């Protein structure tokens, strides 16, 4: 899609799959649970679960990991500012959403 100021990324975790949390990967991202259920654990051991439709922002939570606790694949959609994009440069939301690499993949997007 167009070269707007935001990037859309999709992450899929299989049943029972755990992904270590990397703050830099999720920086500035608004995350929607598109399908399945995610459990997050903080560094102090606190846990919380969120199902489809939940909207999350991980900044400041000191997370340890994310895990798919459901019987179906977990699908997370993360939307964040394109690196190097100026604040306010988003423009039309429909035109500004681009496909990027999934957080945690080898390609930082």
Automatic annotation (TrEMBL):
UniProt name for this protein: Uncharacterized protein
SUPFAM superfamilies linked: RmlC-like cupins
Domain of life: Bacteria
Gene3D superfamilies linked to this entry: Jelly Rolls
Organism whose genome encodes this protein: Streptomonospora mangrovi
């Amino acid at each position: 899609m167009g070269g707007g100021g935001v990037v859309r990324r999709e992450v899929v975790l299989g049943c029972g799959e755990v992904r270590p949390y990397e703050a830099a990967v999720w920086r500035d991202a608004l995350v929607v649970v598109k399908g399945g259920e995610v459990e997050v654990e903080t560094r102090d051991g606190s846990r919380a679960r969120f199902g489809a439709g939940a909207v999350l922002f991980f900044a400041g939570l000191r997370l340890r990991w994310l895990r798919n606790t459901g019987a179906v694949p977990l699908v997370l959609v993360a939307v964040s500012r394109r690196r190097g994009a100026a604040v306010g440069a988003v423009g039309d939301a429909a035109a500004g959403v681009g496909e990027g690499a999934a957080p945690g993949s080898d390609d930082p997007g």
